[in-house]
Design brief:
two-stranded antiparallel sheet, 7 helices, globular, disordered C terminus
């Protein structure tokens, strides 16, 4: 994987309650592939990651979503965590930030509870995707074609269910990020074949 994402600037959007392993493992995979991940959050300072329901490490925030331009980034990672996903989907600036990546056709990777944010941004309609199982009704109601699979790639979107899927998730994430932006019209044409 070394060098595939040479100097690619990647936004990792997370806040307090992010699942630590779902933040750390994709971050590590990005760095190993040569990317430059930046932690974008709701407020400056630090966030507290969680190991399920227990507090874990703190992480330094690189940029605040309300004053950060999504055009500065080539791709977006949305780690999971129940608290993290709920806080992010309730923040209008964060939702607009996420939607901007889809509007530009940039690659996005979301795991576990992070797809809640995608439903809130209204970017899942017609997409084949997965998530933590308890989100399937929310995603179907938002128009997604939810499936129970380790990793799902639909155009520029990579989704996975849980920490056990991280190997497949990070491999698919790096591959999609290396492919770069995609025109959403082309994705629809491919789905019809």
């Amino acid at each position: 994987m070394a060098g595939e994402l040479d100097r690619m600037k990647v936004a990792v959007l997370a806040t307090d309650g992010v699942e630590q392993i779902e933040l750390d493992r994709p971050w590590q995979a990005l760095e190993e592939a040569g990317a430059e991940p930046e932690l974008v959050s709701l407020e400056a300072g630090e966030i507290t990651a969680y190991d399920h329901i227990d507090k874990a490490d703190t992480k330094r925030v690189d940029a605040v979503v309300s004053s950060t331009d999504p055009d500065e980034y080539a791709a977006l990672v949305l780690p999971g965590g129940v608290i993290n996903g709920d806080f992010i989907r309730a923040d209008a600036d964060a939702v607009a930030f996420v939607k901007a990546f889809f509007d530009a056709g940039k690659p996005v990777a979301a795991i576990c509870h992070a797809p809640w944010v995608l439903a809130e941004a209204d970017v899942v309609r017609g997409r084949r995707m997965t998530s933590w199982p308890s989100l399937q009704t929310d995603l179907r109601n938002a128009g997604a074609k939810w499936v129970d699979e380790e990793v799902v790639v639909d155009g520029n979107l990579v989704t996975s269910r849980q920490p056990d899927d991280l190997d497949a998730f990070t491999a698919a994430m790096v591959e999609q990020f290396a492919a770069g932006p995609q025109d959403s019209d082309d994705d629809e044409d491919e789905d019809e074949d």
